[in-house]
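Entry type: protein chain
Record version: 2
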Amino acid sequence: MSQNLTAYRIFYTVAKAGNISKAARELYISQPAISKSIQKLEENTGCKLFLRSSRGVKLTPEGELLYSYVKNAFETLSLGEEKLRRSIELGVGHLNIGVSSALCKYILLPYLKEFIRQHPYISISIACQSTNETLKLLDEEKIDIGLVGKPENRKNVQFDFLEEIEDVFVAAKDYLRHLKERGVKKQEILSHSTLMLLDKNNVTRQYIDEYLQENQIRIQDSIDISDMDLLIEFAKIGAGAACVIRSFVKDSLADGSLVEIPLDKPIHKRQVGFVYQKHPLLMHSLREFIRFYKDYRPCQ
């Protein structure tokens, strides 16, 4: 397109009004500015677009040809603006969320249940993977927002705190009883157990590895499992001691199907929250979701 959109807007308005002074009032610009714009457009197209008379202006055959296309273009733009306005009014949109399977089940789902009820026209896509992968997808703009443990040294993202989580080691009663029968003392349970941990690419696993190293707890045997729900189930059948998040096993601790293993030094709590790219113009569906979770607190 050899002309800018403003020149075609002026041409379209003058042709529709049939009068330069009327078009000037509609566009809030001076008549000389309109005349100059039309003159430049005629020079650049190499043909006369308007016939001028005391009663106003009339399109030439060449002007009629150009107007037919310009009219369609501006009507299409107006239709697009109207559809966009209506979609915003209805709350139509799409949201891509990245989250680990455990955080999705135990933290995200209660938020999503109410958000979907309040915003039925916003569709949700969930990408379940580790926190590291979620942050990578966020950097690549393949997701809009992620639910993760608080990342360190990432100035390009906004982190909104939701809650604290606490890692604990749990096991079945029979498993702990067998250790006791073998003469294993309470403070030796972890070093004499088969430890069941999330895989090494998981941020939680890296955090627990640091804890074990700092407290000089040597692991004799371990099993890597990619899913925390599986960790919990393996612990219940007595396969070993599992590192899980306390709030995720509160019912199992309450009914006695799992027992928390006492630690000389508790594992520091971690912050969990939503993270998204810092940007002055966030899309409508993301703005609505941020506004929602800042005000909403699911029932515990």
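Comment: The chain is about 50% helix and 20% strand.
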